[in-house]
Amino acid sequence: MRFRSRLLRWGFGLLFTGCGGSLIDEPGSSGQGTGGTGATVGHTGGTAGPGGAGGTSSSGGMGAGCGLGAESAPPFSVTLVFANTSSIPLWLWLECLPDFELTSCGDGYSTPLGMSPGCMTDCSVSTGCIVCGPCLSQSQLVSPGGYYTYVWEAQTYTYSTNLSGCSCYYAHDVPAGWYRVSVPVWIADPGMLRTAPTFTTVRDFPVYRAGDIIEIELMQPI
Questions:
Q1: Taking CA 32 as the corner, what is the angle to CA 27 and CA 37, rounded to the nearest 5 degrees?
Q2: N or C: which end of the chain has fewer CB within 10 A?
Q3: Which domain holds residue 98?
Q4: Whose CA is closest to 99, among 208, 213, 196, 219?
């Protein structure tokens, strides 16, 4: 498990951290994935990144054909590692969160999941309000052999208004099963203005325990 040992060794000396992710950049080396629609799975602990925009919620178990056999109970967490295994620089897009989409096999991968509650308080523990600054929109270089990581706490969110009249959220653990990540990728720096991506990498991955590492190779579809 060479990839896992590298990631653990670098975990306390990241070269870049911000907006809910971190960049691990080691020119001249590359992680290996399984290709196709699969993803490499490791296992270690992780910490959550800060919030961004939310989406729809998910509750209950997976539908037929979407489970993993012997299901485990949440909570789960997943570290998504977007790996540039090519010989050229690639760019992702950041806007509070890295720009990618998560969907669930449970509804046929049709509805994006909310990855983070955004700028609001937890309805179950707070009646106050918070004020957040604007998100910085920018490109993120992933050099050849480099990695950009994001920790997903495997939760989705529904929204309400608390006693102070401010927006708040309720967190819901996702069930074990198969999920899909779709991440736009650029082969030229889009700068400060998001343009159409060069291609989109799509990978399916299992969620069934806490602390998994899922390596997503940033590869153009064949």
A1: 130
A2: C
A3: 2-217
A4: 196
- Would you tell me how many other CB atoms lie within 10 Å of the CB of residue 2? 9
Taking only the tens place, the pLDDT of each residue in 39-98 is 444 433 333 333 333 334 344 456 667 877 666 888 899 999 999 999 999 999 998 888
CA 70 – CA 176 distance, rounded (Å): 10
* Cα-based angle 35, 56, 148 (whole degrees, multiple of 5): 40
Q: Which residues of 25-35 are buried (b: 16+ CB within 10 A; e: fewer)?
A: beeeebbebee
Does residue 22 form part of some domain? yes
Q: Put the strands of the sheet holding 155-161 in their side by side order.
A: 121-122, 167-173, 155-161
Residue 175 covered by a domain: yes
d(C-alpha 65, C-alpha 86), whole Å: 33
CB crowding 106-136: b at 16 or more within 10 Å, else e: beebeebbbbbbbbbbebeeeeeeeeeeebe
Question: Does residue 222 lie in a domain region?
Answer: no
167-173 and 155-161 as β-strands: parallel, antiparallel, unpaired?
antiparallel
How remote is the C-alpha of 76 from its chain's centroid? 13
For the chain, how many structural domains are there in total? Answer: 1
94 is a domain residue: yes
DSSP-derived 3-state class of residue 42: strand
pLDDT tens digits for range 201-217: 999 999 998 899 999 99
